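Tutorial handout. Part one gives the primary structure; part two gives the three-dimensional structure as tokens.
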Amino acid sequence: MNPASLINLLSGITKLSPDFTKTLTDFLREEKYNVHQVIHTSGQLENRLWFVDSGFARTYYFDPGGKEHTLNFFTPNQLIFSYNGCWKEASDDYLEVVIETNLLSLTYESFYYLLENYQETTSLKHFFVRQRYYQDIYKSRLLTWSTEQRYLHFRRASPDIFKIASLRLIASYLNMTRENLSRLMGREV
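Part two.
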């Protein structure tokens, strides 16, 4: 396990003490997942958060009619967490890796220990909660635009997603049909 990417990311947000870095590293666990492996399902209590070391993951849910909706995509150097997990409530989302993925995990129990004992954890928590809030705002605003505006904006903002994710997943994220997405992508050729 090599937590260097995570430590580098965190130290770019706030100054990390050597003791914090050592304790965090001791708490981290490496998790390796295969293609399309579901890490947690709806109704389960998320007991940890993850850092994407390599690979690609997504969260999704099913609406009452059984239709799947992708909520978020996660690429390397991103943190995966849910508010439900932080609040020790069961999640209604699924977390799936799309390709072979290596994650570093931290239990919420360990996170709360860090929060109580290391001041930098508070700054990190605020940063990531704020970042997640802005991601949620972006997604909700994105869905108010026309299908073409959604596609063009997301394509510009996240070109790497189009190299990894299937049309089905991107269409699900953008709340449109695969056919509509294919048609929009075909216009660019």
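Part three, for discussion. The longest strand covers residues 48-54. Strands lie at 29-33, 38-40, 48-54, 57-62, 68-74, 79-80, 94-97, 101-107.
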